[in-house]
Structures are given as structure tokens and as C-alpha cells.
Design a protein that fits this description.
The protein is about 40% helix and about 25% strand. The chain is built from nine helices and eight strands.
Length: about 210
């Protein structure tokens, strides 16, 4: 993709493997429902190894970074075919990543423990979910660059790209307590599909490329 200028010194561009360390940092700095989670973890790369690295390494066609004055301050990750993506990860990503964290000798935090449990459960999504919403997305922006309109522009771009590639439905996972994110996605036509105390899955088969007011 061509770089998209979103503001003074701010652009959206395709992610490269060389960006991965910076994207892992952003993932940690947004890991507490959009707020910095650095203080909650002793295993700083774990959250990104679960929620960022798989996309950069195995679905780079829909991986983007938000860059401000030369620094990566956000990312946008998408998958066209979730079932195919998960099969790829099951063979070529999760086994080595799970092995990386199989024998932790350092002290860990409760948040690390929760992530290790999440890592152990990584596998395949509900077939009914991916049948109706075959694509999915994930976005994070550090606090210093939130509420500036970048998220709307980024999501609009990705939804258009997924639609052009043939997607007829998109879903996403978010924390149930993240009311700001819930309201944000509803502006793009997403609705709650399933929800429990911890996680909400939202989906749309009629997604808008521009957020409704």
C-alpha cells in the first residue's frame, strides 16, 4: 500500500518485520484496555507474542503501523480468512511460541499468569463465528495518540481493504469492560455477537467504511 498521511507527521504504512519489536512495545503500552500495562507484567513480550507477532509473521498483507514523527505509536492488524490463518498458526507459530514460555523460571505477575493461560488456549475459533464473520481485526494506539481521529481512519482503511479482497463479514475480540471501544466499533456497524464477564466478540456483515456520528 501507499503510505497514507493522517496528520502532520503522522502516517499509516505497511508493517515490516523490522517493526515487530516496536509493535510489541505498543501492544504492552496499550494492554490494559488501551492504557499502559507495562507495570502489570514481568514478561513484557508475552502479550505481543500472542496478539501481534502472528499477524506480522503470517498475515503481513493486512498489517499496518501508525507512525508519528518517525516513531511507531499504533498498529492495525487484519486477517481475511480466519480459519486458514488459524490453521497456519497451529502448524507454524503456536508450537514454538508455547515452547518459548513452557518453562518460566522468573517471577511472574497475575497478569502474566492470565496471558499464559490465554496462550495455552490458542487454537481455533468457533466455526459458527468464522462462518458468518470470516475476517477479523485488531487495532491499538498508544494513549498519547488516542482520540485524534487516527483510529477511525485506520479502521475505515482496513474494512475497505478486506471488502475489496472479498470479505463478507468481520469480527473482533475486546474486553467487555472497554465501553469506549464498544461505542467506537458500533459506529462502524459492529454489534455484540457473544459476551461474558471478560470478553466481548463483535461482528458485522454490513460494515461501514466511515464511522457514523
Amino acid at each position: 500500500m501507499k503510505d497514507q498521511v493522517l496528520g502532520s507527521g503522522v502516517l499509516l504504512r505497511a508493517a515490516q518485520r523490522a517493526d515487530l519489536a516496536h509493535m510489541l512495545r505498543v501492544c504492552l503500552q496499550t494492554g490494559d484496555s488501551g492504557k499502559d500495562a507495562t507495570h502489570l507484567h514481568k514478561l513484557p513480550e508475552l502479550v505481543g507474542d500472542i496478539y501481534v507477532a502472528p499477524y506480522v509473521l503470517h498475515q503481513p498483507d493486512f498489517a499496518y503501523v501508525l507512525e508519528a514523527d518517525g516513531n511507531i505509536v499504533g498498529y492495525l492488524l487484519g486477517v481475511l480468512d480466519t480459519a486458514k490463518f488459524e490453521s497456519e498458526l497451529a502448524q507454524n507459530y503456536w508450537p514454538t511460541t508455547k515452547a518459548k514460555y513452557a518453562h518460566i523460571e522468573t517471577e511472574i505477575t497475575p497478569s502474566d499468569k492470565e496471558l499464559l493461560e490465554d496462550l495455552a488456549k490458542q487454537g481455533f475459533s468457533d466455526p459458527e463465528l468464522v462462518a458468518k464473520y470470516p475476517s477479523h481485526l485488531h487495532i491499538d494506539i498508544v494513549q498519547s495518540h488516542q482520540d485524534a481521529g487516527y483510529g477511525k481512519a485506520m479502521i475505515s482503511h482496513l474494512l475497505a481493504e478486506l471488502k475489496a479482497a472479498g470479505s463478507n463479514g468481520v469480527h473482533l475480540h475486546m474486553a467487555s469492560k472497554n465501553d469506549r471501544a464498544r461505542a467506537f466499533y458500533k459506529k462502524f456497524g459492529f454489534v455484540e455477537v457473544t459476551e461474558d464477564a471478560n470478553e466481548c466478540i463483535m461482528g458485522s456483515t454490513n460494515f461501514h467504511f466511515k464511522a457514523n456520528r
